[in-house]
Write a structure and sequence with these properties.
The complex is a heterodimer of chains A (544) and B (165).
Chain A: H1 2-37, H2 45-80, H3 85-89, H4 92-110, H5 123-134, H6 138-141, H7 146-165, H8 167-176, H9 180-212, H10 216-221, H11 223-251, H12 257-283, H13 298-305, H14 324-334, H15 354-383, H16 395-406, H17 419-422, H18 426-449, H19 461-473, H20 484-512, H21 519-539
Helix pairs in contact in A: 1-2, 1-5, 1-7, 1-8, 1-9, 1-12, 2-4, 2-8, 4-5, 5-7, 7-9, 8-9, 8-12, 9-11, 11-12, 11-20, 12-19, 12-20, 15-16, 15-21, 16-18, 19-20, 20-21
Chain B: H1 7-31, H2 43-61, E1 72-76, E2 82-84, E3 88-94, E4 104-108, E5 114-117, E6 127-132, E7 138-147, E8 153-163
Classes of the chains: A mainly alpha (544), B alpha+beta (165).
Chain lengths: 544, 165
């Protein structure tokens, strides 16, 4: 129980993100099947079967995630509130999960291979899946305008599923299509559907933002507002890729159109999942409109973000608190508490000491110098001017050494705790593991850059890792209250995440697009710039 | 990452992450495999892929603080306030609708003993009300836990002092 309590918040975000992703895939697949595949003039049994298979798999995964979430939440509720099981079973979230799971299994049954060809009855369980999700959204708990907010949330989620959830099925369709012309027709049909979905989700999203964010000051002054703004930026990236697709279908070179469509589709799916993860983290935050106190002001942001010489000197280890955990516990017990509302398993937070802040700034700034150098060298290497610049991944060795030395200052070689003793501490062990992992990645990408690895798939590891890191950076570190220091730190980390997502997927497109596609050259220049910008943001990171 | 997580908790993190990313990796790679070729990743490669993704995720996610969204907007008694006893009306207002039947108010007395307070049924949807009676002078804490209508569980504590009347 205590262990479940400790990871409860983590599991909630994980299950919510996974639920939204699989919900989008299941519902998006159903809409794609009915509005794109079934309306195509040409019939393809292989395509139909592939779509049905993925809808079934998505529905099964959705049911698994729903059951996992409801089990975790029920156990926590039952144990933490000493609640009889019958009371737990009557909770709204249990009812929502029952509807969701029943709908998912209905989808599995209705998409069985032996069924007839009429699939419009799948729309009913699809609607039930959306309804189940809306029942655990912000809108259900609002005091004012509950009915319209529920309606806008349902529209927003349904449109997201149709567009982003439909994208993988477009790739499947292109792959399975019997002729390029058929694939082109499917793409054009999906483009129309996507356009309508984008309009609906943007309109509903705007209406929801008015209710949940409320003002421009809340956009930059709260975590919720900043995350909504992030979603808008990522949405812009998706629209940009969608526009490229749109142009391609209408005016692209026939020889490479399908290959290009698939590659853009892959990047759109990746960024789409990032948006869904961002949305999952939003559901765990109180709406900005509810937190009118202690918002970060524009002048505070300018003061914190204005360029400042990097901190190249570090405080000594002796200046850091000897036992950070004991200090945290003491601060929580004697107050003042930095947060007054938290979920089971969470504790209050202790403000960092000036030495800890300086230690952290020093870490960020040296990491920034290394990343900036990598970005600039990669840019030069891409231009083909200086051949040795292709060795830029070797700078990761510096990053690894830095992580090894600075992540756990109380341990060897900086602190009194010996090397072997630290390996018994899982936290330190993980940090050591990451230090080794960075070296492995350095060698891996160095071999790719210098032409020692030619395998197409192996070269994708690096961009995928950068993009995944960016996506996950968006899902972490939120406080329930308006903790100015945390909001300011988040405002620094959000650009890093966005640049990482852009770097990962532009590198992906550079590697995957056919050589005759002109966008490929643009992407080849874009990702080093994004990496350099990550370095620049890190260099300007400050905690005081 | 907080410095006080037990090995088992780390293992739970790791287990869920690896399962999640293993499945994601298979879904992702299968999608991009050309028809007619191998449609399922080899277990070894899938595990490697999951491990790499897990490592990236763990580096960033392991710092995740728990979060939900019912937050306390105002309370009576107020945080760290001094109020006269012996009877103290308790009223907590949240930013969202809360499920009063599945919420709890507990009073922690100066000697550490606890007393569950009965929540009044006749309150607005965003408010919990109760009555604490017979309180002697001293330092108390009011521990609350609410289930929001959207299924999120939130909790907190309000330290306050009873002054001699």
């Amino acid at each position: 129980m205590a262990r479940l309590l400790q990871v409860f918040g983590f599991l909630s975000v994980l299950f919510r993100g996974a639920t939204l992703t699989f919900q989008s895939l299941a519902v998006g697949g159903i809409v794609f099947l009915i509005l794109v595949v079934r309306r195509a003039e040409e019939d393809s049994a292989a395509l139909l079967e592939a779509c049905l298979r993925w809808i079934r798999r998505s529905a099964l995964a959705l049911a698994a995630m729903e059951i996992s979430y409801v089990l975790a939440n029920s156990i926590i509720l039952r144990q933490s509130a000493d609640m009889p099981l019958r009371d737990v079973l009557g909770a709204n979230f249990v009812l929502a999960a029952v509807i969701g799971v029943a709908a998912a299994f209905t989808v599995i049954v209705l998409t069985a291979p032996t069924r007839s060809t009429n699939y419009t009855d799948l729309l009913l369980p699809a609607a039930a899946i959306i309804a189940s999700s809306v029942m655990t959204s912000h809108s259900m708990a609002r005091l004012d305008y509950r009915a319209p907010l529920v309606a806008f949330t349902a529209l927003h989620q349904a449109a997201t599923a149709t567009w982003l959830g439909g994208l993988p099925y477009l790739l499947i369709a292109i792959r399975q299509a019997q002729s390029p012309e058929f694939a082109r027709r499917l793409s054009a049909r999906f483009s129309q559907l996507a356009l309508v979905s984008v309009a609906v989700l943007a309109s509903a999203g705007f209406a929801l933002s008015l209710a949940y964010v409320g003002s421009l000051k809340a956009v930059y002054g709260t975590s919720y507002g900043a995350m909504v703004a992030t979603k808008v930026v990522l949405f812009g990236l998706l629209l940009f890729l969608g526009a490229l697709n749109f142009q391609l279908v209408r005016r692209g070179p026939a020889s490479s159109i399908l290959a290009s469509l698939k590659r853009f589709g892959e990047a759109e799916i990746g960024i789409g999942i990032t948006v869904i993860l961002t949305a999952a983290s939003l559901t765990s935050l109180p709406p900005a409109a509810d937190l009118a106190q202690d918002r970060v002001t524009g002048s505070e942001i300018i003061a914190r973000m204005s360029p400042h010489p990097p901190r190249l000197g570090s405080p000594s280890v002796q200046e850091l608190p000897e036992d950070a955990y004991a200090a945290q516990k003491k601060a929580f017990e004697v107050g003042p508490l930095s947060t007054e509302s938290y979920v089971p398993g969470q504790t209050g937070t202790r403000p960092n000491t000036p030495a800890e802040k300086a230690w952290s700034e020093y870490n960020h700034h040296w990491a920034g110098i290394l990343v900036l150098a990598m970005g600039l060298l990669a840019f030069i290497a891409q231009a083909g001017k200086i051949s040795w610049a292709r060795n830029w991944p070797l700078a990761f060795f510096g990053l690894s050494a830095f992580l090894f030395l600075r992540s756990d200052p109380e341990t060897w070689p900086l602190g009194p705790v010996g090397f072997w003793a630290t390996l018994a501490d899982p936290e330190v062990l993980l940090h050591r593991f990451f230090a080794v992992l960075v070296i492995v990645l350095a060698i891996f990408e160095w071999r790719v850059q210098t032409g020692r690895v030619m395998s197409g798939r192996a070269r994708l590891a690096f961009p995928v890792l950068i993009a995944v890191s960016g996506a996950l950076l968006l899902t972490h570190s939120h406080s329930l209250g308006n903790l100015k220091e945390e909001v300011l730190a988040e405002l620094s980390h959000i650009p890093i995440a966005i640049f990482a997502v852009a770097a990962g997927w532009s590198r992906w497109l550079e590697l995957r697009l056919p050589s005759e596609n002109q966008t490929r050259a643009v992407m080849a220049r874009l990702w080093p710039v994004c990496i350099a910008l990550i370095g620049a943001v890190l260099l300007n990171y400050r905690e005081m | 990452m907080s410095a006080h997580q037990l090995p088992n908790e780390i293992a739970i993190h790791a287990g869920f992450c690896i399962i999640f990313f293993q499945q994601s990796a298979q879904l992702f790679m299968e999608l991009f495999t050309a028809p007619g070729k191998r449609s399922v990743m080899q277990p070894g490669r899938r595990n490697l892929c999951a491990l790499v993704l897990f490592a990236a995720a763990a580096a960033l996610l392991i710092d995740v603080p728990a979060a939900a969204h019912a937050v306390l907007l105002e309370s009576s008694p107020a945080l760290k306030s001094a109020v006269p006893g012996p009877d103290v009306p308790v009223k907590l207002r949240f930013n969202v609708r809360v499920d009063a039947l599945r919420s709890r108010l507990t009073l922690i007395r100066p000697d550490g003993s606890t007393q569950a307070l009965e929540i009044s049924k006749q309150t607005p949807a965003d408010t919990l009300s109760a009555e604490a009676t017979g309180l002697a002078a001293g330092a108390y804490r009011l521990r609350w836990q609410v289930l929001a209508s959207d299924g999120h569980i939130t909790r907190g504590e309000i330290p306050f002092t009873i002054t001699a009347s």
